[in-house]
Amino acid sequence: MNIIHRPEWIIPEREATSEEVFFNRRRFMKGLGAVGLGLAAGGPAMMNSAFAQDSKDPTLGLYPAKQNAEFTLKRAITPESVTSVYNNFYEFGSHKRISGAAQALNIRPWAITIDGMVDNPQTIDFDDLVRKMPLQERLYRHRCVEAWAMAVPWTGFPLSELVKYAGPQSGAKYVRFETFQDSDVASGQRQFWYPWPYVEGVTMDEAMNEMAFIATGIYGKPLLKQYGAPIRLVLPWKYGFKSIKSIVKITLTDQRPVGFWETIGPSEYGFWANVNPDVPHARWSQASERLLGTDERVPTQLYNGYEKQVAHLYKNVKGQNLYR
What we know:
The chain is of the alpha+beta class and 324 residues long. It has a single domain (13-314), classed as Oxidoreductase, molybdopterin-binding domain (Sulfite Oxidase, Chain A, domain 2, Alpha-Beta Complex), CATH 3.90.420. Helices cover 18% and strands 20% of the residues. The chain has helices at 19-22, 25-32, 34-40, 44-51, 80-83, 126-131, 159-166, 204-207, 260-264, 307-310, and strands spanning 111-116, 122-125, 136-143, 148-158, 174-179, 199-203, 213-218, 221-222, 232-234, 247-253, 288-291, 297-299. Strands 3, 4, 7, 8, 9, 11 and 12 form a seven-stranded mixed sheet that branches. Strand 3 (136-143) and strand 4 (148-158) form a beta hairpin. The radius of gyration is 19 Å and the shape is globular. The N and C termini lie far apart (44 Å). Residues 1-47 have low confidence and may be disordered.
């Protein structure tokens, strides 16, 4: 007889709070506040395009994917109405109201290069790659280094499946990710003082952990552009800047990648960036977090609540700041 021991953070799918139940107009309007007004100032066309799902998306029929019951939450799902207009995406600006501007990004065709220390180097079309992967939905908490948080239903596949597909060679120690670069559509990339394109990386051990996820959809649909369409990284135990958006290149390497924000401010944004309430940012506390769409602040959890799943990855890492 097999006895299944589930992590204690798991709850049954039937107990996960739905978006419809969670949504409350008064709290939504209070939490959204100036963000909604800022988007509205751009006019109806901007608002409509920011929420529109492309009916010609070749992958539309893959959604919604079956929810993986191993990855549910005790926190209410943040409404799409909130998260779709409150986004960090520096390629389109340093503010949160980039949802309209992000619609300029052309995500078809979208090629992804897989190279470096792999047995199967290639450049593959996103629409072909996504069909090779085991799509599933997972409910994850997301914690920004700026001390705000949300909980969303991502659709995608384990990063480990992509690493296996690449055929990692024995000397590969890290996975490096790179986003697109096109300053004609991404006005933020015209700011020459930033080290474009956006780069991030993880260790091979982190990449193979069950929590590391490649997202291609959200809320049961393909990713909207402001979320990092068509393909992004999701690392729920780390601060959000590690979860790179709109990936065009994945490289397995024996050299530790230096990320976009680590390049800009290494004393504030490091390689590891694991969530820890007891380690403040240089300019603010990380002890609590603001839940988007509400007026609530809640205590921050170590590793964003995923300590049992990921803490073992760092037991032999010495002499480094794991929490920035």
